[in-house]
Write a structure and sequence with these properties.
With 248 residues, this protein is α+β, with helices and mostly antiparallel strands. 15% of the residues lie in helices and 40% in strands. The protein contains four helices and 19 strands. Helix 3 crosses helix 4 (187-194). The chain starts with a strand and ends with a strand.
Length: 248
Amino acid sequence: MKLATLKDSTRDGKLVVVSKDLTRCSEVGHIARTLQAALDDWAHVGPRLARVALGVETGAQPTIRFHEHDAASPLPRAFFWAGGSGGFTGPRDSISVKDGAPGILMTTQLAVIVDDVDAQAGADEARQAILLVLLANDVSADGAVVASSFSPVAVTPDELGEGADLSLLARRNGKPIDGGKGSAKESAGAVAVAAGARPLVAGSIVATGLCLVTSALSSGDVVRIEANDRSGHSIFGAIEQTVETSRK
């Protein structure tokens, strides 16, 4: 199942179920208005969304055209990410960096969205708590993160295949950036580490360190990050952003 959040007049957008080929989506406000609402009651809501996803693929469910440019990050804000809550930049929004800021650096990796996880959870509990997988992109300047953004689409682990290796396709100004290979099945370890000292609440986003790509950036650079399946089709949609400078 693939899920996305479309931008609207609210802070958390509206949840949609997206087709496997990322061309169509179905609004599911009657089931859960937002992704966070779905995560808060996943045991009940998840199966209902899965039935919608099946209907999207078979043509039994009404759909509209899905445009990645209309998507916010799947969770426009979250309770936990890299140690704290916060709002996130959309996957196609520009990244604003203070004019003259030194050391602009992009760090891209796989991330997971989890259900409730007890403190000091074991690997099995951590693995079962992983509800969705997505791409994460942090941009920092002078050692401080200035923007975090996520792929347009988050997917359930079964969409990746059992033990399938992933390769991030990262480009800066159209030129490939090296790195970015790994397997999502190793994500449980990162979740267990994140829950080592404190419990995680449903909707927490955990960086896995998998498929890691780093690159220095400059003002005006355009970055594009995605991952394809074995057929060459995009799994999560693409993060595509321009680095812009601001005097603020």
